[in-house]
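Example record for the data management plan.
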Amino acid sequence: MARIWASEAVADGGSAGGRVPPEVQRITGYLRMSAVSGIGFAVLFGAALVLLREAPGLGVPDSAYTAFYRDGGGGVLVTIGLYVVPFAGIAFLWQLAATRAVLSASARAHQSPPEIPRLLQLASGVLFVAMLFAGSAAVGAIALLGSFSVDPLPSPEVARALAATGYGLLFVFGVRAAGMYMITTTTLARAVGLFPRWVAVVGYLAAAFLLVSTTFHPAILLVFPIWTVLVSVVLLVRAGSPNKPPSH
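Corresponding structural encoding:
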């Protein structure tokens, strides 16, 4: 990234007069967009996770499912959580698009990102959102029935099966997609000098943890938004100091 700004400054006659080249302004805008949308995704995702966790877990007895939905436990918290999830996904798609725009701009500075990681980054990001939507819908399906249907609710066995489906989509497939997104984004950003080395190390370690983890504890779902916040802060710093090379 420093190479991009340096080449643009030379092409525009340096920083004489304090005028920022248009290309640098555009890339800085992409950096801010990626950072702001990334922080927005992390906040919305965390709020949705807290709300959806009000639903009974897989290890509780059938009586807990019956009591929870009979007493209206899913009427507010779980339903609101489901409505927050789409906005978290939308914010993440903005972050994905803005990040890819920054990486694409680096190609014009004679530093083309590798094509395979770029394709994998796009695929894993979209797959993560798909798993997030599908898994959340499965976990909150009974809560939606309780809020909008006049028919009797399904049996606890059905509720448990839907919850297990949602957990599988989120904790097995969604978590792995998030890990792959972290690996590819870190690789591409490091190749163009966007991330300092320590951020790359943190990203690779966190991604490896997501890829090999077998736990269904909800805390694992927080690894990805925490990494997103870290990356967003780095991008905001980069956007505020476009002429400063990345630290090593």
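Summary line stored alongside the record: The chain has nine helices and no strands.
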